[in-house]
Specification:
single chain; 164 residues; mainly alpha
């Protein structure tokens, strides 16, 4: 008979077992239970749902796999040393991974996970660039305000010299 865990205990178990790649929030597990991604004995009350250890391990492995950090070297190694250069497009990444998949050195699940990881990497880059644009826009607005102040001073016609 396998051990059963409450949602709170399950979070601790997963974080000990899959350090860095486990859900941090109990609500994540509750959503997985409600959606059917994680089997559990639904119980009401203070104790809550009970999750079988085997089901928890299966869910934890799947969750950890989805959270693995994007590593373009993974696909490069599988492709026989071809590496993506910094700044290459996501399209090139997809092409490279498809080539690897066609050679049957990468299964469909790994392929999908790598695509999700690469998408996440590009989304992060987009977020950083948007923040940078926002900061530059603020700086541009400040420069325009300063220029307007200079224009007002110049157009006022009052020039001060050192003798006054």
């Amino acid at each position: 008979m396998n051990k059963k865990y409450t949602v709170t205990q399950a979070i601790d178990f997963l974080n000990n077992r899959f350090s860095g790649y486990a859900p941090k929030n109990e609500e994540t597990l509750r959503r997985a239970i409600r959606s059917g991604k994680l089997k559990a004995e639904i119980r009401r009350g203070k104790e809550g749902s009970l999750i079988d250890e085997e089901d928890l391990l299966t869910y934890g492995r799947s969750y950890a796999l989805r959270l693995q950090i994007s590593n373009t070297d993974f696909a490069a190694a599988k492709a026989g040393g071809t590496q993506l250069e910094t700044g290459e497009s996501p399209k090139r990444f997809v092409e490279m991974v498809k080539e690897v998949q066609e050679n049957r050195t990468l299964d469909f699940t790994e392929y999908k996970i790598r695509l999700m990881e690469e998408r996440s990497r590009w989304a992060s880059k987009e977020g950083r660039l948007r923040a940078e644009i926002q900061n530059l826009q603020i700086e541009l607005d400040e420069c325009r305000m300063e220029l307007d102040l200079f224009e007002k001073e110049i157009s006022a016609g009052e020039y001060y010299t050192a003798d006054k």
